[in-house]
Write a structure and sequence with these properties.
Blueprint: E1 9-10, E2 16-24, H1 27-37, H2 47-58, H3 60-66, E3 69-77, E4 82-87, E5 96-99, E6 104-107, H4 111-116, H5 124-133, E7 146-148, E8 153-158, E9 171-172, H6 176-186, H7 193-211, E10 218-221, H8 226-237, E11 244-250, H9 258-268, E12 271-277, H10 279-283, H11 289-293, H12 302-313, E13 318-320, H13 325-329, H14 333-345, H15 350-361, H16 365-376, H17 388-398, H18 404-412, H19 432-436, H20 442-468, E14 473-475, H21 481-489, H22 492-495, H23 503-509, H24 515-518, H25 529-534, H26 538-544, H27 547-551, H28 558-570, H29 576-590
Parallel strand pairs: 10-11, 10-13, 11-12, 13-14
Antiparallel strand pairs: 1-2, 2-3, 3-4, 4-8, 5-6, 5-7, 8-9
Helix pairs in contact: 1-2, 2-3, 5-29, 6-21, 7-21, 7-23, 8-23, 12-20, 14-20, 15-17, 16-17
């Protein structure tokens, strides 16, 4: 860091001092706008300096409304003698806050707070949420005494008359509801699909260009899917030389996407790098997960994300990703199939649907997979579909939904029944606002909810912690302010068109990649945890799920968890997600501090 960008940084007027973590992508635009109002002798070229001078000139609220970036910061006002903590709109950067009657602490990690105080106690409701959703939703943390500042929020702490800081003190400066309302009002501007696609390319290209500004080596994660391909194509279009791309592969056809990434990279002309992993490559990272993620976190794709981050860091310092493309441009299968499920099954009694679901689930996923393989010899198109048995079991497990909200919850939770020994308060992300909002469809309600739930607490947490563990900075073009606002201005029938999700992105990509390469079933960035838990990770899992180990916290219904483990081992069900959630908590609990 140069002297011009060193922190803590003082404003020119001397009133403000800031500690800043992240990137402001529109800082050059803000700098030009600021220079229209005042004359400033800039000490350096950092976005931190622009940020603090904007606050000094325009005030905090106006500045926050103008920022386009990922950040968390602490701002000390010497005149008011108060401290303001703020976090970016979508929560790309973390911020934990501890507060008692006598003191407070804040950090982008939990570890310093654990050192600061020894009075932390486990939040049992947070454990229940983590078992269900794989993450602990903001504003909660694993500790009762610590909360996460919500994305798009700030909190002011008066240092003169300090009182304990609570969730009641935090204030929003931006909310998803804003984007939804503005988007609905702007939809009349898009009367034809062609205009929508053209504008999508325009805002995305601007976002990518801003995130490519760097004085260190830059590259991209490339899985070969729609989102990462779109970002990579726009990067290469904007680059004078081949950009570096990175992908991870597995010697398991049910999970491997590396060959698609390589094909895409060859067509785009990137300098492609790929690494094929065997279970042992991943397993060395498993014991480190609790330290990397600070609190229990159980999205199993954290493992390949860690590996691709480490792999990319050998050559670059910054990487652009395709994360959030699903939430922004309607990519998840639930957006396509959820409304169909409601229309098709609501007319039948719930008891009948429940009975059918149980019958379908009485046959193991492995049996369905074998049947699908046999059938694919007669119908070759079926070879495109992976993990058929798991998908059949998932469908059977959700068709007894009560209403739209219940269907959504069933689609996203790993533990339908509580595995906790005592009853706890449900702190899962409130879905009332999104599902009670008038004027949008079920798919759009899911998109809204995924933005403030799954995307913020899972996807962004996974990528930020994994990349930071390798000192790699990741940037997410789909979470640009203008891109997100634009997505809500597009009618849903433009985003899901003729049965195809993310249609504007598909059309954009078709300028660079032939359609037949991209038109394949959606596949997430998964790993074969199901088979690992039966083989390579079996001993590790049995130790963490032993009666003695599970009894340590006193939180769980031990028999229920162990029965699930045994069913998974037998192959009668695939309980990888539910078991991984428990295992990640157990690993966190038993880690060495």
């Amino acid at each position: 860091i140069t002297d011009g960008g060193s922190q803590p940084m003082k404003s020119h007027c001397g009133r403000f001092v800031i500690i800043f973590n992240g990137e402001i992508y529109n800082f050059n635009e803000l700098k030009i706008e600021l220079e229209l109002d005042t004359s400033i002798f800039w000490r350096g070229h950092s976005d931190t300096e622009v940020l603090i001078e904007c606050i000094a000139q325009w005030g905090l609220n106006t500045t926050l409304s103008k920022l386009n970036g990922m950040f968390s910061f602490a701002l000390f006002d010497r005149v008011k003698n108060n401290l303001t903590l703020a976090r970016d709109r979508f929560g790309e950067k973390p911020l934990y806050i501890y507060s008692s009657l006598n003191s407070f602490a804040f950090s982008s990690e939990l570890k310093p707070i654990e050192l600061f105080t020894n009075s932390l106690t486990i939040n049992e409701s947070a454990v229940q949420a983590q078992l269900q959703y794989s993450y602990i939703p903001a504003p909660y943390s694993i500790y009762n005494e610590v909360f996460k500042l919500l994305p798009g929020h700030f909190v002011e702490i008066d240092l003169v008359s300090y009182t304990k800081v609570s969730l009641d003190n935090i204030k929003p400066y931006w909310e998803v509801r804003e984007a939804v309302q503005k988007g609905l009002a702007m939809r009349r501007n898009f009367k034809c699909l062609g205009d929508a696609i053209e504008e999508t390319e325009k805002v995305l290209l601007k976002s990518v260009k801003q995130r490519m500004i760097s004085d260190v080596p830059i590259g991209a994660f490339l899985s070969g899917g729609i989102d990462s391909t779109c970002i990579t194509a726009l990067m290469q279009e904007n680059a004078s030389n081949p950009i570096k791309t990175f992908s991870i592969g597995f010697n398991d056809d049910n999970y491997n996407e590396a060959h698609h990434a390589k094909e895409v990279a060859n067509i785009l002309g990137t300098e492609h790098n790929e690494m094929y992993l065997c279970p042992n490559d991943m397993l060395e990272f498993v014991p480190k997960l609790a330290d990397i993620y600070d609190e229990p976190f159980a999205d199993s794709s954290q493992l390949p994300t860690l590996m691709v981050s480490k792999f990319a860091r050998e050559q670059v310092t910054v990487a652009l990703t395709g994360d959030a493309g699903d939430e922004v441009f309607s990519g998840y299968n639930r957006y396509l199939h959820g409304p169909k499920l409601v229309n098709s099954y609501s007319k039948y009694p719930q008891a009948l649907r429940s009975c059918i679901g149980s019958t379908v689930q009485s046959i193991s996923p492995l049996t369905y997979n074998k049947f699908a393989v046999a059938l694919s010899k007669l119908i070759p198109k079926l070879k495109r579909y992976k993990r058929v048995g798991d998908n059949i079991h998932k469908l059977a497990g959700v068709i007894d939904f009560i209403d739209e909200k219940d269907l959504y919850k069933k689609l996203i939770i790993a533990w339908p029944d509580s595995a906790m020994s005592d009853e706890v308060i449900d702190i899962s992300t409130d879905i009332q606002e999104a599902f009670n909002f008038e004027g949008i469809s079920l798919a759009e309600r899911m998109m809204w909810q995924d933005t403030i739930g799954y995307m913020q607490n899972d996807i962004l947490t996974k990528v930020d912690r994994a990349s930071m563990a390798s000192s790699l900075e990741t940037r997410v073009p789909f979470l640009d302010n203008d891109v997100y606002q634009h997505s809500w201005a597009l009618p849903l029938e433009f985003k899901i068109h003729n049965g195809l999700t993310k249609y504007p992105l598909r059309k954009l990509i078709s300028k660079y990649i032939p359609n037949h390469i991209m038109n394949r079933p959606k596949s997430g960035f998964g790993v074969p945890i199901d088979s690992w838990l039966r083989k390579e990770l079996k001993g590790w899992g049995e130790e963490l799920l032993s009666t003695q180990s599970l009894a340590k916290s006193g939180l769980f219904q031990i028999k229920m968890i162990q029965e699930l483990w045994n069913k998974h081992q037998s192959g009668s069900i695939n309980a990888q997600y539910a078991l991984w959630n428990v295992l990640m908590f157990q690993q966190w609990l038993t880690r060495e501090k």
